[in-house]
Design brief:
Elements: E1 10-11, E2 14-18, E3 24-28, E4 30-31, E5 34-35, E6 43-48, E7 57-58, E8 60-63, E9 71-75, H1 78-85, E10 90-99, E11 102-112
Parallel strand pairs: 1-11, 2-11
Antiparallel strand pairs: 3-9, 4-5, 6-7, 6-10, 8-9, 10-11
């Protein structure tokens, strides 16, 4: 009997990231019931038109003051989303989330222009 080890990231599609909004998404990483200790780990996330596109929209990451809780907030800056849209009503691509050297989540990413804005 063969043993199968699936290292495919969890499929998470992000829809409705809005220009001008905070776009904050809280994450809670656990193994079983135990929180993941994020001490010393680098957390990064980017969205691109395709996996091979050289242009990227990077998210900001805010760790919980106690990194042993496994909690962090991933945010997509609303003004950076507006620039990404470049005057178009919507944009779609792909994104992923890396913690340390591992890609934990990946999927589709869509952004839309907001209605209420300055000017």
């Amino acid at each position: 009997m063969a043993v199968v080890v699936d290292l495919t990231p969890v499929a998470v599609d992000l829809y409705g990231i809005r220009a001008g909004d905070g776009n904050a998404i809280p994450f809670y990483l656990h193994v079983g019931v135990d929180p993941v200790d994020l001490t010393g780990l680098t957390i990064t996330s980017q969205a691109r038109r395709s996996v091979t596109d050289s242009s990227a929209l990077s998210a900001t990451v805010e760790l919980d003051p106690d990194p042993t809780t496994g909690k962090f907030v991933l945010s997509w800056d609303g003004e950076a989303v507006r620039e990404l849209l470049a005057g178009k009503p919507s944009w779609s691509g792909v994104w992923d989330l890396q913690v340390g050297l591992d890609t934990l989540a990946a999927g589709r990413f869509t952004a839309a222009m907001d209605v209420t804005r300055e000017g």
